[in-house]
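Subject: DinB family protein structure
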Amino acid sequence: MTDTRIDPPVVAGEREMLRAWLDWHRETLAVKCQGLTEEQLRLRSVPPSSMSLLGLVRHMADVERAWFRRRLNGEDLRGIYYSDDYPDGEFDNVDTASAEEAFATWQAEIEHARAAEEACADLDAMTKTPTRDGVHYSLRWIMCHMIEEYARHNGHADLLRERIDGATGE
């Protein structure tokens, strides 16, 4: 694995710091997937889990979309890989999924997310669409949550990658 990540600054304003850490974690997932075949990206962890690196990429595309486009911007969009019929579709339906398509979709959702975040005047901007339980969240909360979401799944990615070819890293 070639690590091309740029370390976040040690001193920065709050928004710059949140952006840098979120981008670092986004890139971490990409690094964990680097150099693998489609078949390797599809390899599952351990039963009964259906988690795979490809599933994580698809999941994070849906998470980026949900928080930045659907909630923050109020766009009327459905899930990309999951649905009411397949609530874990991003993980379960990878056997014939295209890695190229998944990575392109994930990167497109990241670009949409960056644009949505940049369009907000400040971190106190609130979501236009509430969650199912009626809660609106601030952009600050979303940024922190996304860092947490990636950090947790990057831990999964570490274990998956080590299982595939023994590669480990930060």
